[in-house]
Each structure stands twice: as C-alpha cells, then as structure tokens.
Design brief:
It comes from Plantactinospora mayteni. Helices cover 32% and strands 21% of the residues. It has 14 helices and 17 strands. Strands 1, 10, 11, 12, 13, 14, 15, 16 and 17 form a 9-stranded mixed β-sheet that branches. It has an 8-stranded parallel beta barrel with strand order 2-3-4-5-6-7-8-9, surrounded by 6 helices. Bound molecules: pyridoxal-5'-phosphate.
Length: 432
C-alpha cells in the first residue's frame, strides 16, 4: 500500500533533514506502521491459538526483527544467516521455524542446534535428518504447493509440474510414519501455495487440505497434528487503487473453520502458524533516491542514485512500485523511465511512468520497499547495497545498517594463503 497518510505526514516534513544527515539512497522503515500491522495480525486471530513467524528473508535487519518480536512474533528462517539474524533479535528455540528446501546437512544441524521447529521439505531431507541420530521430538512437514487442489495459485512457487517445494500429499503418511518410528512425537503440517495473494480463498483451501490430512494422519498413524502452517503469501496493494487484503475477515474465516473442525473431528484444533513477510513490513518501507541526471534518448530518462541493486522487484518481475516526487504534487507531469546506473537495460525502477517534472537534486520516493527490497539486493557491477534507516515511533531516525563499501566487497579477496600443489609436485614430495 503506497505510504499511509500517517507515514507520509511523519516523514515528509523531515525528508530533507534526513537526506542531508544520512545522504541518499536509503531504505527507510516506519516503526509505527509495522507495530500497527503486527497488532492487526494479532487482533485478527485473537480467537484462536495462533503465532506469526515473520519471514526473515523479507527484511533481515535485527532492528526491525526486534519490533515484530515485541509483538510476540517468532521468525521463519531458511539459512544460517537468517538464523543468525533471528538470534540477533533475541529469538531462541521455539521462536524459530526453519523452513528450508534442498537443505544442506550442516544447515539442518544449525537449525536443530538452536532448537528451531524444522520443516521437512522432502523425504531426502528427512532421511538425512534421521541419519544424524537423535531426531528432535517436534517436526513439521511441508506439502507440495499443488497439494490443495492440483494447482498453484501464483507463478512465484512454480506450477504443479515445476514446483520444487514440499512432499506430494500421497507420500505424507509414509514420511510421517518413518519419523514417528524414529522417536518424533509432535507433528506439524505446512503448505504455502503462493505469494502476493489478495484474497483469503486460496488460504481457506490450504487450511481445508491440511485439516483433511490431519484426519488421515490420525487414522493411519495415531498422531494428532499439533500445528498447521499456511506459509506466507498475504499480498499488499502495490498500486494506489487496489483493495487491501481483508485481514480481519481472513482471521474470522480461518478461526471459524478451525472451530468447526474441532467439533467434527472430535479432536483439539491444531495451533495456527503463519509465516508472513510482505504483509507485515512491505507497506512500511520506502526507498529514497535522488535525481542525479536528466537524459534524453527516444524517451526521457530520469537517472537516480539507486537502481535494481537496491530494489530488484521491478527488473525481476516487472513489478509495479508506486513512485512520488517529494514536493512535486503541483508540478506538471511528464512520461519517463526512472533508471539506475547498472549496465543492464532493465535497471529501471519505473518504465513509462507519468511523474511530476523533476530536476537534478529532487528526491524520488519508491513505495512499498519494506519487504523483499534490501534483502534481494546484490552487488553485480560493483554496485553497493544501500543503508537502511528506521523512523522510530518518537519521530527520531537512526541508521540500522550502513551502506556497503568497496572494502566490504574486497574483504573476500583477503584470506590466508591456500594452495593445492600440482599433481606432479605432490607425487614428487610423497615419493622422492
Ligand atoms: C518467502 C516465504 C515466506 C514469506 O512470503 P511473503 O509472501 O513475504 O509473505 C514465508 N514462508 C516461506 C517458506 C517462504 O519461502
């Protein structure tokens, strides 16, 4: 959702001061907005046993993770670096879900070591985990995204044929049986079917599928499923005219379904887990970038000091991010491409966008960068990932990550000497 009126009213008056103090470009996150959204999530599910595990990959900055942790959220991590980010925000053990795929053994060990609830993505990973000996008492099992009705609602997770995630539904019982035989006692189910979903319907179907599977598991193995995780995927309106996802209605629908199941199945309803990323922080972040060049080609190109290395979504998915020009409301508009400095022609934050006429020095605000923004950044072409700032609830602003430097990029070129001698020399040494 492009910047809320409250966020804009608190940021715009200080925008010039902030850019003079910290320089551009930067991602800036709105603490108050994030807090309101956390409260809205907790409110929507107040009538059921529920916990949100914020998807660390959406915004892996411990300062922001700390905000959501204050609201009772745990974390969904999928790599050792994300486990470290969660730990830096104070999370331990049951505060963390580890939902990874094609999981390397050392990462499995790292997740088990911190006591995270590990989500098994495939029997191959389960075998590996069981092979380590002393499996955890609790495990979750992720289903293939097509498990609900044979389809995958958005392309981001692939389609029925190409999706690489999860265990097909017809293989769940044998997988769980194997885990139980090795001493696992507590089983959760996980199914994420899409991303940027704007309606509750796909989630309701996901829940129905998991609840049916819970009955099947109880009948076939005797285990009572303790949690159902619907994954992430709640969408946000990137365009001003779009209707936001109805979180309250979603909560009511899901709660009613869980209650009905509890009655029908004669069994305590499982705890509800969600792993939302985008919906929690997405609307509460902006990328602020300065116009550095106006250029005439076949089109007018507005050159800014940030590009796809700071925000990949437009180049990667053709995604729309709303753009505004600070103080530009009353200016005449023009049709422009907004471009970064990478040697890639898709390095554009907007293509053929009607924007107020800008000059060098103007500030362009890119909206909805609070999730999958900085975290998807990269360093191709030697581009440096930008700093991150936090607008605190009291109106102060602090730097929560500095900008990358050339020295950071060159740090991996400095290491202790390590040489494997040529084979000829090695055999000379060993057999003189
Ligand atoms: C990316 C991801 C999420 C978060 O998705 P959003 O669309 O940001 O809510 C949650 N769980 C898993 C396993 C993911 O891969």
């Amino acid at each position: 959702m492009p910047m809320s009126p409250s966020f804009a009213a608190r940021f715009e008056p200080i925008a010039r001061d902030v850019t003079e103090h910290f320089g551009t470009p930067f991602h800036l996150y709105d603490e108050r907005g994030i807090e309101e959204t956390c409260a809205a999530f907790n409110d929507a599910f107040v009538d059921t046993d529920y916990r949100e595990f914020f998807a660390v990959k959406a915004l892996p900055n411990p300062a922001v993770l700390g905000i959501v942790a204050r609201h009772g959220f745990g974390f969904d991590a999928s790599s050792p670096a994300e486990l470290a980010a969660a730990a830096a925000a104070g999370a331990t053990g049951a505060d963390i879900c580890f939902t990874s795929n094609n999981t390397p053994e050392d990462e499995l060990v790292a997740a088990l070591d911190v006591g995270a609830l590990v989500t098994i993505d495939d029997e191959a990973v389960l075998d590996r985990l069981l092979g380590l000996g002393a499996p955890p008492k609790r495990l979750a099992f992720r289903l293939h995204p097509s498990a609900a009705d044979g389809t995958v609602p958005t392309g981001m997770l692939g389609d029925t044929e190409s999706a690489k995630f999860g265990i097909p539904a017809d293989r769940l019982v044998p997988a769980v049986t194997a885990a139980l035989a090795h001493g696992v006692e507590d089983v959760g189910l996980h199914l994420m079917r899409g991303s940027q979903l704007m309606h509750a319907e796909p989630f309701s179907r996901t829940l129905d599928t998991l609840l049916d599977l819970a009955v099947r598991l109880r009948d076939r193995t005797g285990v009572a499923v303790s949690s159902v995780n619907l994954g992430g995927g709640i969408g946000i309106p990137y365009r001003p005219a779009e209707t936001p996802f109805d979180l309250k209605g979603f909560g009511a629908t899901i709660t009613a379904r869980l209650r009905r199941w509890e009655r029908d199945a004669g069994q305590r309803r499982p705890r509800l887990h969600l792993e939302s990323g985008r919906a929690v922080t997405g609307p509460h972040g902006i990328l602020v970038t300065k116009v550095i060049n106006r250029m005439r080609k076949a089109r007018t190109m507005i050159g800014v000091d940030a590009g796809m290395s700071a925000l990949m979504r437009p180049a990667l998915y053709g995604a729309y991010h709303h753009l505004t020009v600070l103080g530009g409301q009353s200016r005449a508009t023009e049709l422009v491409d907004v471009v970064g400095s990478l040697c890639e022609n898709n390095d554009k934050l907007a293509v053929q966008r009607e924007l107020p006429r800008t000059d060098v020095g103007d500030l362009v605000i890119v909206h909805d960068t609070g999730a999958h923004g900085w975290s998807m950044g990269f360093t191709y072409n030697g581009r440096l990932r930008p700093q991150e700032l936090l607008l605190h609830a009291d109106g102060s602003v602090s730097r929560i990550r500095r900008a990358e430097t050339v020295a950071d990029q060159q740090a991996t070129l400095r290491f202790p000497a390590s040489v494997l001698p040529s084979r000829r020399n090695r055999s000379t040494v060993r057999h003189p």
